[in-house]
Amino acid sequence: MEAEKYQITDKDGNEVLADVSGSLFDFIQECDRMISLYKNQRYTQAEQLRDKLSERLDDVMRGY
Fold first, then answer.
1. Is residue 1 in some structural domain?
2. Is residue 7 situated within a structural domain?
3. Which of 3, 8, 27, 50: CA 20 to 30 A from 19?
């Protein structure tokens, strides 16, 4: 699988680009979406996504 660029911004506003696998990139984006759902008080959707992500974590860690 091809590497993707993921932009990370720290609390001080510093930006860094990281090369990550496509599956990890997708996983990180879904985590960001889950956090956004929690912030918008959409708890049911956030918890459903959290459960889905917990199942995918093993696959991401194995590089699938």
1. no
2. no
3. 50
Q: Does residue 17 contact residue 7 with C-beta atoms inside 8 Å?
A: yes
Tokens 């956004």 belong to residue? 36
Residues of the chain predicted below pLDDT 70: 1-3, 64
Report yes or no on 3 lying in a domain: no
Residues 6+ apart with CB under 8 A from 34: 46, 49, 50, 53
Q: Give the span between the Cα atoms of 35 and 9, in whole angstroms.
A: 15
Domains held by the chain: number: 1
Q: Are 31 and 43 in contact (CB under 8 A)?
A: no
> What type of residue is 18?
A
